Amino acid sequence: MSLYLPSSLVETFAGGLLGGITVDDGPTAEQIRVLNAVVTHVWNRPDLNVANLRIIGPAELADRLGDHPARTMFHELHLTLEVCRHPPSPAQVQAVEEYAKALDVDGQDLEIFRSLVDSGVEAAAADYQRFLVGNLDERVEPSLRDVVVDPDHPEIALAEKLGTFAEYGPQTLGHAYIAFYERSGLRMPGVEPGSHNHFFVAHDMTHTIAGLSTSVAAEIALSAFQFAMNNNQTNRAALLASLVTHEAGFAHPAHLAHAETGLLAHDFAAQLLGQELKRGSQCRGDFSLVDHFELAPMNLTDIRAEFGVAAPANAHDGHHWW
Predict the structure, then answer these.
(1) For residues 263 and 216, is the Cβ–Cβ distance under 8 A?
(2) CA 204 – CA 213 distance, rounded (Å)
(3) For 230-258, what is each residue's pLDDT tens digit?
(4) Which of 150, 151, 188, 306 could serve as a FRET partner for 200 with CA atoms 20 to 30 Å apart?
């Protein structure tokens, strides 16, 4: 329940987020759409007209929140709204910095987006690539963390080990993991040379357990799900990486051909983000970096029950494999 807020704080929190995007000529339509999706799905307040909330400034928000752990959550949601302003705005970056300072929150995003508005896309992309190297290293499959990788050659032993999952029963995580690659048309980690095979084992296992597909909207939603499941530093960095790649669009990791911009301007994507933030916050534990090889022979339904993974609002929306 890492996105839990007492009911008495919801309007304050949302008013702070509104204040944090009320720059230049005001919030953009995309920012309001995303804020509304968060308030509606995460805190169950569809009755709130977010565009007309009383604005809560940085000092008042810090005073109202006190030492509540929601300070970090506010910063990450403010970041999400920040990247939904196109083109990037110096005033928006300044607002994020002012709220972060008042809440005593720091983050790698501050440097990246300050570079974007002060020095341009090339400088921000360089900042992002430096950040991405460490982030992907932190998100590798735990049992593979110390396995040496030669990026110029396939990892045959890894591919063969993953291939044995096909021998597990049809209701198991291992069987569902194999089906994930068949549905997506992706190659199984280890089959081809690469430096991030161990990251993809954990990442694609997380896709499988969460039941999210590989559409671009689902990739953003998965990172939001992880952040809501456990808003630790690793998952906050995963959210930032996804937002830069699929929403801000000024950089992307090497395994993707290109970045996207403005996806959350589409109502379906904003709603999916809100819904997956809610599903992630309902989980009882973080399954993104557990030992997935140990879980592979187990029944997928039992694993989801253990971690509290609820069924999606619409399992047939094209963004879920459930």
Answers:
(1) yes
(2) 10
(3) 999 999 999 999 999 999 999 888 777 77
(4) 306
